[in-house]
């Protein structure tokens, strides 16, 4: 019986020494899981920001073309107004 009780004692001692190690390992895994989760969130946010910046850049890139088109249309409409005013002036005379 002494052999069995010695084996049990050794096993209990072994469990006491490995428990803190297992707890530390579990804590490290939880921490690593949280770190991985946060890194994924950062990566997702970076992608969203890049997409939004690209869309905004493309919109700004198109603005000069729109402004130029408006300027041409405005010039054309001013000429039409001028010619219509002349026609009205001639018909009143």
Describe the protein's architecture and organization.
- The chain has 93 residues and is mainly alpha-helical.
- It has one helix at 2-92.
- It is rod-shaped and about 135 Å long.
- The N and C termini lie far apart (134 Å).
Which structural class fits the helix and strand makeup? mainly alpha
Beta content comes to: under 5%
**How confident is the prediction overall: mean pLDDT?**
82
Q: Provide the helix percentage.
A: over 70%
DSSP strand tally: 0
Q: Gyration radius, to the nearest Å?
A: 40 Å
Key terms:
single chain; 93 residues; mainly alpha; 1 helix; 0% strand; rod-shaped
Brief write-up:
With 93 residues, the protein is an all-alpha fold. The protein is 98% helix and 0% strand. It has one helix and no strands.
Q: How would the blueprint of this fold be written?
A:
Blueprint: H1 2-92
């Amino acid at each position: 019986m002494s052999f069995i009780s010695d084996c049990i004692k050794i096993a209990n001692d072994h469990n006491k020494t490995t428990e803190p190690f297992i707890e530390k390992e579990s804590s490290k895994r939880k921490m690593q899981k949280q770190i991985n989760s946060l890194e994924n969130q950062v990566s997702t946010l970076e992608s969203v920001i890049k997409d939004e910046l690209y869309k905004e850049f493309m919109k700004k890139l198109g603005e000069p073309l729109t402004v130029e088109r408006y300027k041409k249309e405005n010039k054309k409409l001013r000429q039409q107004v001028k010619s219509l005013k002349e026609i009205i002036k001639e018909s009143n005379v």
